[in-house]
Amino acid sequence: MQLCFNQATTLENSNLVKDLQYCEKHGYDSIEIRTMDKLPEYLIDHSLDELVEYFQTHHIKPLAFNALVFFNNRDEAGYKEIISEFKQMMETGSKLGIKYVVAVPLVTKEKILKRDIKNSCVEVLKELSDIAKPYGIKIAVEFVGHPECTVNTFGQAHDIVETVNRENVGLVLDCFHFHAMGSKIEDLKKADGSKIFILHIDDTEDFPIGFLTDEDRVWPGLGAIDLDGILSTLKEIGFSDVVSVELFRPEYYQLDAEEAIKTAKETTIKVVSKYFQFDTVTVG
């Protein structure tokens, strides 16, 4: 298992330069780069070539772009925007050597039939798959555990990915999102472990299904999520790739960025190492 850092965890108290510096210092293997804010911010004062050189000369590597947002059930203008953004991600991502683009389903108050959601997701993901294939970059679909997300359970997301049936289209399993809308361990037990590309690790305060928001996340092992159940099941179905720590906790944004990155690592290792052996990371 490799250890990854998602920049949401230090969203308001750091930047890409600091995140890379501290993640390298504390032994992370990879990083998920936020394309909606942290990468554009970096490119104001730095070049893409500088970032390429950094990854070439350091242990830490780029895992994913996070994220292509609201890819399904868009109007014509929105659809064209998604395709254009994705093509740019391919160009930039291929230079950096990223492995995945995280794709997030539409969040909306509009009521859309589940069959129409599935049909749109499958159609768009097949097109994205075709675009991504020459670049060798994979698409990791992240269901969001909120009532207003069009794809909000593991079972629903897994069914979509299975229907797409492309080698370069899989899933992000975020423990918070799995818990937040009551995704079923039984569905995870039946899943193909090779179709789960990234595990997002986190925990949450104990609010009812449908009421949880990202700000309720806490360090892994300090909340109400059945992490043991999720991790043991993932081991059973053959997942063993990468775990990425991702939180959006306002209190944690008040911490020094290095302290947050160090704590994220320590809490993640403590929880995950009960089931998976890390390749290079040690607690320190």
TrEMBL record:
Recorded GO MF terms: isomerase activity
Cited Gene3D superfamilies: Divalent-metal-dependent TIM barrel enzymes
Enzyme class: isomerase
Keywords from the named record: Isomerase
Residue ranges constituting the Xylose isomerase-like TIM barrel domain according to the UniProt record: 21-263
Keyword Isomerase attributed: yes
Listed EC numbers: 5.3.99.11
InterPro entries linked: IolE/XylAMocC-like, Xyl_isomerase-like_sf, Xyl_isomerase-like_TIM-brl
Transmembrane segments: none
Leader sequence segment: none
Protein name in UniProt: 2-keto-myo-inositol isomerase
Taxonomic lineage: Bacteria, Bacillati, Bacillota, Bacilli, Bacillales
Gene: iolI
